[in-house]
Amino acid sequence: MIHSKFDLVVSPANGFSQGTGQIPTFDLANNHPFQPFIPDHPDLPFPDPIAAESGNTESPPEYRSAQPSSRAQPNLRRRRLPSSSPDPSVTGIRATPEDGTAVASPNDSIPPGRADGHSSSHKRRRLATMRADGLSTNGFPQASNGSIPTSRKASMNGQSTTASNGESHTNGSAKSLANMSYYGHRREEVTRIIMQSLYEMGYGGAASMLSAESGYQLETAGVATFRSAVLGGRWSEAERILIQSFRNGGANNTQRSSPDENTLLLAEDADRSKMLFYLREHKFLELLEAGDLGAALIVLRQELTPLKYNVERLHALSSFLMCPTELLRDQPGWDGPHSVSRERLLAKLSRSISPSVMIPQHRLAVLLDSVKQSQINNCLYHNTADPPSLYSDHMCDRNDFPLQVTHDLTQHSDEVWYCGFSHDGTKLVTAGTDNTVFIYDTSDFKVLQRLDDHASGVAFASWSPDDSKLITCSQDKKARVWNVETGRCLLTIDHHSEPVTAAAWAADGESFVTASFDLSSQLCHWSLRGTSLHKWKGGFRVQDCAVSKDGRRLVAADTDSKIHVFDFQTYEEVICFPVASKPTSVAISRDSKHMLVSLAEGEIQLLEMDTSFVIRRFSGQKQGKFVIRSTFGGADENFVVSGSEDSQVYIWHKDNGKHVETLGGHISGCVNSISWNPTNATMFASAGDDCAVRM
What we know:
It is a single chain. By secondary structure, the protein is of the alpha+beta class. The protein has 13 helices and 33 strands. Among the domains are: about 50-220, no CATH class; about 220-360, no CATH class; about 580-695, Methylamine Dehydrogenase, Chain H. Strands 6-33-32-31 form a 4-stranded antiparallel sheet, with no helix packed on it. A hairpin with a 4-residue loop joins strand 12 (about 470-475) and strand 13 (about 480-485). The longest helix has 18 residues, at about 270-290. The termini are far apart. It comes from Penicillium atrosanguineum.
């Protein structure tokens, strides 16, 4: 309800205050009278306090609507306490240059009570978006970690007062409350992170009330102005703030207790050229999208080029000038429409701004994810895709882990060298020294297909991305492509002069790679018609190969104890590095970030794909003479699982390296291959020399 009167009288019945005057008031318990309340809106932008106070019409409409305006009459003066000092950055009070007398700005609010502790006869209800008063009778502001100027409540004899539904009440010592930690955490940090999350979830009114109650603001005036400039596409204003911030000392600007709306507190590693490049690059792209090639060319030549930053990216931007406008969005590096791309730009720039003044996006969600991941990492038997609850500590039951043999597949008459589930988990392929390949239905483990066209042992098989085709690799020096549904051979690759050891599909399923011991053609890229698309230079024999799920990388393990990583788009070798002993297999994680390499001397290494950095080593299994194919396992690939020459299966936790289980099941000989069902976390298969495949 809106009232047009100013002098307030608290009504216990409805909380409204009425009197005479001109300032509209409303009940904070109700929704804002000027805009609808939108609960649980995931992408609601933060309100712009600077734009709201100044009436800046350049802010985007959705941004301006995030908070109400709260202007007082310009002819009203705020009563000052005798011992207080001005704090213009947070209260709107400004000192005149002649005598330093503080005068109220149009945005000042009336304090909730008199300095002597008696209630004022006239009170104004504080709106949800109005800043709390910043004065204290003892001269001490509320405690802060020094990162931002806090909006402080007026206090009487050291007692903090807050306005709520027209009532003035004390809530303990402001100084002692601000200095108190929240169970070991800084109160200000916790409060501001909660405020940010409330805005992100769509509870803007609750966030504003929390700000008024606590006396903390989410952002400084400078950050709010910078945010508004970036999201509003006011590039000159955004640049001016950045340049002024670097001039004022950037990250070393700690002596400024109250940064104004024209400066930012920057991160220690903030790079001026980098931040300006991001801004001007975005300006260039938007001009191109608008069809203003002349202005875009000026930005490229006169603003971006002089920065001498990221020359490779400059060349890419130059190529955009020759691209038709309708095709720009399809170019690599194009960042999408304004509403999305400006948010992404702000997120990139925020990494160079001190988090103490501009909290990184979705900070509470990131912290909660960290807590969840920590619990998962410490849960030895975690094997579910469902995220842990926040309500209680997480621990999976060992009884829910696949520890018992449920099926014994004995169709093979000799050693089984390979087993692998289809991507949808509905089928299982097995292959061995009996020259035979079996395809099973995993719902009942009945044989769907028996493929026996190979003339020698089959060492490997690979499912196409859509599971409609299967490649088999044999010691008869041939690779065959099969139709899974009919069991018909679609293509035979007989180009190699040595056994074909492995194969891998391209991400689109339209081509594949074969690996061989053949020194002259150890790696070949084929189309589904059997046409050779590329043949890598010879000189080494390949034991195993794999293509990342994103289609960017081809990894090959050779018999000379080296791992080769190729760019699968350009065929160029990205990196080649040695390993401690002969690698017997290589597997790539589903997220294409890590690879798992099995070594003949009984060690398994988890490495970063791009850097070849060894993240973790796993040992304990027995390996020396035979090829053993280890792999990732579990619902979220939380495990590393491998066979062993002692007839057992070993399982480790991928993230903490702990040994989880050692499982029996095979009668004798080596366990050669392991495969974990990608859609059923409670099922994995092992293939061994005892002619059996066990589930």
